[in-house]
């Protein structure tokens, strides 16, 4: 249930109503729009009568939220959420590009790529230290050593980093080394214990859509994180599994608009994992921004033909630089900046 207060409702009235609801066993989330305050009640609200609230002269309207996700719902939080990562705003007018290799390989590799993508305009360095692979015999990443290389390269270029967390036992390491955005990969989208664990952190979380997940299931996973107190969630559409084999996955760009309609959370698109073919990445990145995404995440490798994993979907620094030039031309057309 949400309670919309009237414009300029006194803070004392709002706080009193919040306390009354907490005393009755409800969790209360307060969000402020351009002119009104919205209170979201979480709990069994079936016994509450909307008329009781409307007797308060400072209550404008009361609505029941039908969606199973509450905190992630736009009804609970009408204004767009903007996630701040070291001054980089994800979800605002400015588009954010995250770029880097699928996997960290050597100091020279990650260092050179970091320098190149930063020069082209990328805001955040991505890279995998712990890699979930379909085959247990495939390269699984360098682990802690790879994480150290990623952090070191990012510090040299003054860039925040995003990297994937596969299990809760590595959280201490991620916090100690200063990971700026924790990525929850597609295979872990419904690892509810892991979602609750990162929900208790004060670190932004990038939540990738599961390869067979509906949008509602995806938002419910975001709800798991937010229910533990961490509201800094960034959604990432990375393609879903269909019967089509021409691409690695089927990029669902319609999900961008659906998420924007149903949720206040920012959403970015990963055209690399979605298509699996480097020649498709620039076009799908452009399409994602045209569809309303708040940014993109793409894989960049200095030598894709010899990459230790996912070389087929990695673009070169030169291609990335060209893509950034095209995105800068597109951004003002769709009312954004880059």
What's the layout of helices and strands?
Blueprint: E1 2-5, H1 11-23, E2 27-32, E3 37-42, H2 50-54, E4 59-63, E5 83-85, E6 88-90, E7 96-100, H3 107-120, E8 124-126, H4 144-157, E9 161-164, H5 171-177, E10 181-184, H6 192-199, E11 205-208, H7 215-227, E12 233-237, H8 254-262, E13 267-269, H9 271-275, H10 281-291, E14 295-299, H11 317-330
Helix pairs in contact: 3-4, 3-11, 6-7, 10-11
Give a written overview of the molecule.
One of its GO terms (molecular function) is aldehyde-lyase activity. Residues 82-327 form the DAHP synthetase I/KDSA domain. Residues 1-67 form the DAHP synthase ferredoxin-like domain. This is Phospho-2-dehydro-3-deoxyheptonate aldolase. InterPro entries: Aldolase_TIM (IPR013785), Class-I_DAHP_synthase (IPR052899), DAHP1/KDSA (IPR006218), DAHP_snth_FXD (IPR041071), DAHP_syn_2 (IPR006268). The protein is an alpha/beta fold. The chain folds into two domains: 2-63, Alpha-Beta Plaits, CATH 3.30.70.1140; 83-334, Aldolase class I (TIM Barrel). The chain has helices at residues 11-23, 50-54, 107-120, 144-157, 171-177, 192-199, 215-227, 254-262, 271-275, 281-291, 317-330; strands at 2-5, 27-32, 37-42, 59-63, 83-85, 88-90, 96-100, 124-126, 161-164, 181-184, 205-208, 233-237, 267-269, 295-299. The strands form three sheets. Strands 13-12-11-10-9-8-7-14 form an eight-stranded parallel beta sheet. A four-stranded antiparallel beta sheet has the order 2-3-1-4. A hairpin with a 2-residue loop joins strand 5 (83-85) and strand 6 (88-90). The radius of gyration is 21 Å and the shape is elongated. The model has no long low-confidence stretch (mean pLDDT 93).
């Amino acid at each position: 249930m949400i309670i919309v207060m009237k414009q300029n409702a006194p803070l004392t009235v709002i706080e009193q109503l919040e306390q009354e609801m907490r005393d009755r066993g409800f969790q209360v989330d307060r969000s402020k729009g351009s002119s009104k305050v919205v209170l979201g009640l979480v709990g069994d609200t079936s016994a509450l009568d909307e008329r009781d609230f409307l007797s308060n002269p400072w209550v404008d309207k009361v609505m029941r939220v039908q969606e199973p996700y509450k905190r992630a719902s736009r009804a609970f939080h009408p204004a767009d959420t903007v996630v701040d990562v070291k001054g980089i705003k994800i979800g605002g007018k400015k588009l954010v590009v995250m770029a880097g290799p699928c996997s960290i390989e050597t100091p020279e590799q990650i260092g050179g790529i970091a320098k190149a993508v930063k020069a082209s305009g990328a805001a955040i360095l991505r890279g995998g230290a712990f890699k979930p692979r379909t085959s247990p015999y495939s390269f699984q990443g360098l682990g802690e050593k790879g994480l150290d290389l990623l952090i070191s390269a990012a510090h040299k270029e003054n860039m925040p980093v995003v990297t994937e967390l596969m299990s809760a036992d590595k959280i201490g390491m991620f916090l100690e080394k200063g990971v700026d955005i924790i990525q929850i990969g597609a295979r872990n989208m419904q690892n509810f214990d892991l979602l609750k664990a990162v929900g208790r952190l004060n670190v932004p979380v990038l939540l990738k859509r599961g390869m067979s997940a509906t949008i509602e299931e995806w938002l419910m996973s975001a709800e798991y994180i937010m229910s533990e107190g961490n509201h800094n969630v960034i959604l990432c559409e990375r393609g879903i599994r269909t019967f089509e084999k021409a691409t690695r996955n089927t990029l669902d760009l319609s999900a961008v608009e659906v998420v924007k309609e149903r949720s206040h959370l920012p959403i970015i698109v990963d055209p690399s994992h979605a298509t699996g073919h480097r020649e498709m990445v620039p076009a799908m990145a452009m399409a994602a921004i045209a569809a309303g995404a708040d940014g993109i995440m793409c894989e960049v490798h200095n030598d894709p033909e010899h990459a230790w994993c996912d070389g087929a979907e990695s673009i070169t620094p030169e291609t990335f630089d060209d893509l950034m030039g095209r995105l800068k031309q597109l951004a003002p057309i769709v009312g954004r900046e880059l």
